[in-house]
């Protein structure tokens, strides 16, 4: 089979991308998401993509899926009832938590502390104790553990998490409790901290393990149901899920460790953006993914996304490797409103979502949204998603008129422009979080914009950030699905060491890394990959002695010469990163806290499409003229069909470029050049802002 299928389920739309591995040709489908059962929208979209390609479902190979099942379970509070087993004396570990309150100095006054995912009444203690060096201080009281588990069984828990003190150093007690749980609880899913997160820090390890247990039944049911339905539909390929770090894992592994899927959807977009930027010849870029509900942004340097050790979803922050993505509640469905107290226009974070959606969708929505504002300004056509969604301009005008009546804005166009300006500023703030506040100048990066709404706002974000060119990929509305289809299998293994550099040498650290590499490779080898095709990378979390936080640093295994070259390279890399982040260094001894090995499979052999060359004149693709409102007044914009554009043609602004899954706005004073890979490269016409990080 030569077709790969990428699937991305968002809050508003489900995106499908079918890729012909031989030619690189792609076939797209975009359909409304089905929150009650995501698999319904997935199967419907797959059928539509296959119809467009003219193939049967039996010709589809592997399915790569970015999912929000785990994310939604957290955000909506609809996970399992979780029981927690702790060491005696640690029953309130989740309630004590960390003394951190988000917001300003007096944020604690209005901050409602989130309820733990495992209630105190569903938390039990067992006797037994492991020391920090892994030695047994007190043997496990198995009869005590059995009684505690029987109590949880009587209370009707739906999932179990086990997190005992210092189990990262010795997992024997946790494993024994898990065996007893299998006898007492039967088919209840069990998450063990020494498997989920074998790292230092009791609270973070417990929280991550409980989060894993909380979403595990939902993810297991979904993957099993989708696998069954794919098979019933005639698709014989395997189902893979996208991890938060941008790699793929088998459906079975995902069901065992679903906490690694919490940022599955946004990670797909970053992976797709990296693929597109590589085809266009750019190495350093910001990603800007604007959908119907939210906007996700990330920074990619040397074609490698920045990876963080913390995953945040709502109020939950767990220790799980993920692409460093920042999210704001700004999307096409974000609702504009005027609070009576301030009389100031606000946009989001509330969203009209897929149901009822923006007023222009004609599905019962009446509140003004960003999409309605774009319709009023003339930026959007009368239909979206290949005709599946028809827009009602009169309903959009009526909705935005409520903003005019609540403010002193003079016209519906001015109100719509105000909505768009505010949402653009909200998204600029997110882009600054991943660039300026991390020590990077956005003017040194290109900006890859995608998502259903991203290309409409991309040119404006380029002006605000100074990031040029703005790259609009082919099929921007389904780029997350493209990322799913073009990324690689990945797994990692981790171990806490907690040693000063003076107690380490190259040989001992290399031995630890070799053991971790074997563990990281294991799941990929079980999935049928060849050992020779795997790539291994290593990283360590380092700090100065006395610091309460670590900084992740890549490990160069080639520097390990047995004479201290590896340790020396680690020290230099940490100092450089510490100085970049904080502008100072300390004389304290360096410590290595945690080490990781990551195994990555080969990238799929998907050919990149190449457009035929044009003569530079895009007039053959121009279909009409549209009256739009931009920069405070009306003007005429050329309307172009993207599939009629050829490589080398230049579309001058103001212009609207239409395609099935998205609409691109080129502002006055800018132009979009068609790259041979199919991307549109938008720059100021005088090119005064620079050309970005081209390589």
Automatic annotation (TrEMBL):
Domain Hydantoinase A/oxoprolinase residue range list: 205-490
Domain of life: Bacteria
Occurrences of domain Acetophenone carboxylase-like C-terminal (ranges): 508-673
Record GO cellular component, one term: cytosol
Domain Hydantoinase/oxoprolinase N-terminal: from-to ranges: 4-184
Swiss-Prot/TrEMBL GO biological process terms: glutathione metabolic process
Gene Ontology terms for molecular function: 5-oxoprolinase (ATP-hydrolyzing) activity
The name this protein goes by in its record: Hydantoinase/oxoprolinase family protein
Naturally occurring in which organism (per UniProt): Mumia zhuanghuii
């Amino acid at each position: 089979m030569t077709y790969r299928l990428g699937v991305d389920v968002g809050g508003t739309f489900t995106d499908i991308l079918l890729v012909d591995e031989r030619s690189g040709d792609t076939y797209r489908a975009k359909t409304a998401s089905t929150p009650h059962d995501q698999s319904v929208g997935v199967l419907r979209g797959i059928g539509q993509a296959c119809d467009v390609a003219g193939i049967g479902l039996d010709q589809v190979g592997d399915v790569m899926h970015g999912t929000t099942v785990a994310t939604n379970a957290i955000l909506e509070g609809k996970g399992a009832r979780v029981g927690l087993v702790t060491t005696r004396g640690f029953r309130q570990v989740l309630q004590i938590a960390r003394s951190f309150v988000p917001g300003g100095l007096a944020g604690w006054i209005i901050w409602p502390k989130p309820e733990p995912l495992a209630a105190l009444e569903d938390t039990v203690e067992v006797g037994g104790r492991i020391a920090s060096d892994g030695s047994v201080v007190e043997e496990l009281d198995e009869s005590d553990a059995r009684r505690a588990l029987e109590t949880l069984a009587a209370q009707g828990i739906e999932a179990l998490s086990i997190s005992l003190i210092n189990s990262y150093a010795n997992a024997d007690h946790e494993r024994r409790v898990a065996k007893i749980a299998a006898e007492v609880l039967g088919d209840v899913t069990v998450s063990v901290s020494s498997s989920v997160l074998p790292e230092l820090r009791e609270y973070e390890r417990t929280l991550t393990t409980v989060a894993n247990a909380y979403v595990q039944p939902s993810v297991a049911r979904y993957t099993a149901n989708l696998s069954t339905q794919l098979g019933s539909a005639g698709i014989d390929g395997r189902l893979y899920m996208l991890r938060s770090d941008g790699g793929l894992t088998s459906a079975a592994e995902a069901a065992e460790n679903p906490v690694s899927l919490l940022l599955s959807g946004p990670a797909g977009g970053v992976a797709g953006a990296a693929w597109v930027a590589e085809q266009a010849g750019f190495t350093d870029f910001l990603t800007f993914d604007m959908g119907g509900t939210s906007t996700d942004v990330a920074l990619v340097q040397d074609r490698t996304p920045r990876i963080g050790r913390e995953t945040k979803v709502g109020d939950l922050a767990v220790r799980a490797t993920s692409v460093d993505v920042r999210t704001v509640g700004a999307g096409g469905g974000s609702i504009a409103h005027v609070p009576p107290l301030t009389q100031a226009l606000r946009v989001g974070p509330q969203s009209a979502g897929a149901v009822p959606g923006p007023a222009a969708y004609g599905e019962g929505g009446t509140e003004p949204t960003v999409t309605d504002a774009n319709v009023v300004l003339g930026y959007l056509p009368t239909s979206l998603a290949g005709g599946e969604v028809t827009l009602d301009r009169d309903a959009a005008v009526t909705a935005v008129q409520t903003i005019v009546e609540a403010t002193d804005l003079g016209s519906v166009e001015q109100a719509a422009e105000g909505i768009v300006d505010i949402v653009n500023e909200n998204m600029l703030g997110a882009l600054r979080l991943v660039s300026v506040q991390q020590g990077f100048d956005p003017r040194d990066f290109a900006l890859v914009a995608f998502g259903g709404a991203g290309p409409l706002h991309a040119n404006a974000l380029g002006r605000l950030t100074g990031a040029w060119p703005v790259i609009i990929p082919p099929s921007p509305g389904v780029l997350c699905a493209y990322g799913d289809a073009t990324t690689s299998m990945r797994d990692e293994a981790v171990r806490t060491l907690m040693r000063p550099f003076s107690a380490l040498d190259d040989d001992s650290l290399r031995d630890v890394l070799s053991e971790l590499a074997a563990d990281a490779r294991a799941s990929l080898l079980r999935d049928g990959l060849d050992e020779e095709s795997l790539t291994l990378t290593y990283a360590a979390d380092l700090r100065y002695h006395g610091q309460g936080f670590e900084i992740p640093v890549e490990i160069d295994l080639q520097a390990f010469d047995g004479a201290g070259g590896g340790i020396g390279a680690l020290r230099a890399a940490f100092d450089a990163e510490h100085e970049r982040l904080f502008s100072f260094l300390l004389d304290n001894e360096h410590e290595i806290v945690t080490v990781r090995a990551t195994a990555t499979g080969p990238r799929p052999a998907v050919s990149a499409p190449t457009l035929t060359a044009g003569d530079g004149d895009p007039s053959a693709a121009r279909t009409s003229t549209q009256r739009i409102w931009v920069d405070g007044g009306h003007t005429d914009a050329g309307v172009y069909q993207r599939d009629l554009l050829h490589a080398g043609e230049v579309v001058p602004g103001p212009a609207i470029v239409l395609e099935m899954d998205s609409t691109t706005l080129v502002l006055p004073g800018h132009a979009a050049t068609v790259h041979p890979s199919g991307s549109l490269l938008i720059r100021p016409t005088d090119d005064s802002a620079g050309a970005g990080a081209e390589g």
